[in-house]
Amino acid sequence: MLRLIFFSAFFTVSALQETPVQKVARLLTEMKDQLAADSKSDAELYEKLGCFCATNKKDKTEAVTMAGKNIVSLKGKIEELTAKSAEHASAITRLGGEIAKAEGALSQATSIREKENGEFSDSEKELMESLASCTAAIETLSGQQAFLQVSEKHREAVHMKLKAVVLKHKDVLAPSQRRAMLSFLQGPMGNKSYNSRSGDIFGILEQMKETFTTSLSAERGEEATAVSDFGALKAGKMKEINARKEQVMDKTRRCRRRRRSLRTRSTSSG
Asked: Count of domains in the chain?
């Protein structure tokens, strides 16, 4: 029994021991399996890399194509913005000229109006003084206030003012009336012959007063019309000037925006 157990153990140990040939065969088998696994792994990696390269190439090609289109578009936009900026700059220059012209016209009209108003003021003052002289003479001659019934100082004052009026306004009276008035004014205030001529002189003075009154009213009416016309002209010019200035401001803002956009796009295209 013991002998049987001994031989059984011997043969089992012998069976477990690997021969050199078996070891080589096993190593070759393991190398074969490893090579097969590596080959499979390499194939999978190649497939992944190939897919990545193909996809990356496609993406890059599309990106290059899109970039080319964007460059063309940006160049076109830059040209458009440049043209628009030049257009706005030209419009601003033109509007500036129109504003200067309108302001010049308004300034000239204002100067003319001021001159006309000055002339009117002088004429109005002169007519009022002439009218006052005629009125004073009429009041002095009318009723109980004949030249001989007033003080010497008053007569002299009325005499001098009335004579200055007749000499200054040569076209107010007819030649015969003017000669009559000058003849009357050349005589002394106490001349007894005055009473025989008072009716004619009084009539001439009334006519002079009416003429001065009519002229004064007409000139005031003309001045009022001139003031109204100038006011309308000034309002129109100011409206025109303000509208042009608003256009300049608007185009200046647009020009600045386009220049900023132009700089941004130029940087992008570069």
From this structure: 1
